[in-house]
Amino acid sequence: xxxxxxLDARDGEAVARAWRGLTARRVEVGGPRWTNTAAGTxxxxxxxxxxxxxxxxxxxxPDDALPPPTFDSHRVVTRSFVEHAVDCSQECYExxxxxxxxxxxxxxxxxxxxxxxxxxxxxxxxxxxxTIVRVFDxxxxxxxxxxxxxxxxxTIGRVDLTALDxxxxxxxFTLPWPRFTLDAVRGLIAQLATEVDAHFDVSATWPGAxxxxxxxxxxxxxxxxxxxxxxxxxxxxxxxxLWVTVHGLPWGFxxxxxxxxxxxxxxxxxxxxxxxxxxxxxxxxxxxxxxxxGMW
Length: 296
Known about the structure:
Strand order of the largest sheet: 2-11-17-16-15-14-13-12
Structural class: alpha+beta
Oligomer: single chain
């Protein structure tokens, strides 16, 4: 089987047959609780193909904002398979979309696939889904197949995965504060953001402004923004909890946090999408906050 047979297959049996004929190597990326991201995959695709990153920015868009598919199938099949990310070997209903962009012999396929099996008895219905990005060069028979939000990449031929290095992470924690204050939360996030960009080292002193006030279900919601040039901390105050977003990081990098007043203290979570080494430094810095517990 050839690379083209795999890329051109449009049903699970054909994909599985072509896949068995390829010499694909499974590569584990990220780390424990660090999974690959759409932004990291976009950066990798841009580096592999030598195309501007802007051509791949839609990888991070929600489903309803994706470009029209170049292949769109909704059908009953006896096999649903894409590189082990989705693998069902019995009759199922399958939704399969491909968004393919090709320039000569090089390009990528953005695949969204899902299947559902009608079950019986205690197990009931079940299914699965995945988003897979294939990046390829037919002239050199090289390619990568990336299962988004996972730790697995399959490579065919010699492929440099360095540019894939934006991984997501999530943790919860409890702070030994009786209640949160805006200043305390600003100080906490400033410490973490500084590990990503030194501009945030003094972000706890940046001037702030109330940029929006609105009411929803009798709750007054206030949005505060503390900024310096393109860098900013945005805090949305819902009364009993806060939503914090760090702005000004490189494209695809994410640092967000939710902070709640709770009976046990102040509880929070941290959501990251960062290069692995940088992200691990941020998590290590969080663990050093005096009195912090409950990190998971």
